[in-house]
Amino acid sequence: MTTAIELADSVRRGETTATTLTEGSLAAIAAGNGALNAFLHVDVDGALSAAARVDRAVANGEDPGPLAGVPIALKDNLCTRGVPTTAASRILEGWRPPYTATVVDRLLGAGAIPVGKTNLDEFAMGSSTENSAFGPTRNPHDHARVPGGSSGGSAAAVASGMVPIGLGSDTGGSIRQPAALCGVVGVKPTYGMVSRYGLIAFASSLDQIGPLTRSVADAAVCLEVIAGHDPRDSTSLQEPAPSLVASLHDGVEGRTVALVRELLDGAAPDVEAAVNASAAVLRDAGATVIEISIPELRLGLSAYYLIAPAEASSNLARYDGVRYGLRVDADDLTMMNVATRTKGFGDEVKRRIMLGTYALSAGYYDAYYGRAQRVRTLLSRAFAGAYGRADLLVGATAPTTAFELGAKTTDPMAMYLSDVYTIPSNLSGDPAITVPFGSGADGLPLGVQLLGPARSERLVFAAAQVLEEGAPR
């Protein structure tokens, strides 16, 4: 496997060109996307134009950046000026944003080549990429199974070799869960470390953008590129991007890692075995491994499915058929608004809008939304207590390997439980990473999750590198 770092080095040295790499990626997408439906839009002209700029820079003796010539897939909720951006929803079909997301600008500034927009659950609401208005994405390892969600298109694009790096968004596990199910690395950074400017909002206090890659090192260099303060995002941390690549091989000797019981509750036996094996790898690398319980984590799912829909109901109110996107004409403004939203939104989005509206309504706010926020505070304090005993936490990323297409679409609660191990760190705002760690009994990929306190990305990545090197082959 050639890493993104190696590809960029070869471009900078003149051993290959950005155009060659881009054409190879575009050819792989053309050959494989019909079966996977990972990409919703392929920007051939834009990608080749960006590649030509990188090649001119190299020819002029300039350094195009750490991702020189590396093709990158963008989840289709990241705005790119003039490029169709739909969030996999009919209500935004054909919309071309008038501005570009900060993370996309930073990728372009680092020499990366965005090749297209990837499929997702509509407005990032889902765990299987089956809620897309434009059809489901399929898992590259078994086309009868889901790739996870909501960033399933980016995960499938990376796992299938169409691109070395994909960007996703993680509101309740939407990077890490599909990364685990597709057998790639997925990172949710500390909240505020990566700008959300240009990300189509789902739940603003939970959303974070992060990379999906085939190696921990590639994820580190990508996060270095996209992280750092952005004055256009009021929640952006007032600090520069962390230096991650330089500390990748710091190891875990002398560190304490806690195996969290609640991050294994309900896991399939093969998942539990993989997590226990990962703990042994960390122990062999010099870490002290302890087992702890954080009972408050069991409250995370309930709190999340009040807070996230409440914020979504507010954020999605802007899609009203007046300013942009789909418009269904009717006799008056109210009926036009109803008709537009009825036709434009899918069932899961409607479900969450109604749930969120109810939770925020008069007479129910304190009982539901207010109480959920108090639980969120309780959970954050529990995490802080755990990090007083351990430097890092380890557990499962998803309860099972990839499940079959259609297996959970009629049972929303079963689908929601797919994110039971990932949701807590979104509520706390802390970083987490999933690393591929062997295969399940069915031969499909398994992922192990590492969690750390806020701003501990250096330590999290160093431990992830240890797991990557010690993972079953």
Rounded to the nearest angstrom, the distance between the terminal CA atoms is 13 Å
Structural class by secondary-structure content: alpha/beta
What is the CATH topology of the largest domain? Answer: Amidase signature (AS) enzymes
CATH superfamily of the largest domain: Amidase signature (AS) domain
Task: Going across the biggest sheet, name each strand in turn.
Answer: 1-3-2-4-6-5-10-11-9-7-8
- Let me know the average pLDDT: 97
The CATH architecture term of the largest domain is Alpha-Beta Complex
Order of helices and strands: HHEHEHEHEHEEHEHEHHHHEHHEEH
List the helices and strands and how they pair.
Elements: H1 4-12, H2 18-36, E1 39-42, H3 44-59, E2 71-75, H4 102-109, E3 113-118, H5 152-159, E4 165-170, H6 176-182, E5 185-188, E6 208-213, H7 216-226, E7 256-260, H8 269-284, E8 288-292, H9 300-315, H10 333-344, H11 347-360, H12 366-387, E9 392-396, H13 412-416, H14 423-428, E10 432-439, E11 445-451, H15 457-470
Parallel strand pairs: 2-3, 2-4, 7-8, 7-9
Antiparallel strand pairs: 1-3, 4-6, 5-6, 5-10, 9-11, 10-11
Helix pairs in contact: 2-3, 9-11, 9-12
Describe the structure.
- The protein is an alpha/beta fold and 473 residues long.
- It has three domains: 237 residues, Amidase signature (AS) enzymes; 138 residues, Amidase signature (AS) enzymes (Alpha-Beta Complex); 66 residues, no CATH class.
- Helix content is 39%, strand content 13%.
- It contains 15 helices and eleven strands.
- An eleven-stranded mixed beta sheet has the order 1-3-2-4-6-5-10-11-9-7-8, with helices on both faces.
- A hairpin with a 5-residue loop joins β10 and β11.
- It starts with a helix and ends with a helix.
- The model has no long low-confidence stretch (mean pLDDT 97).
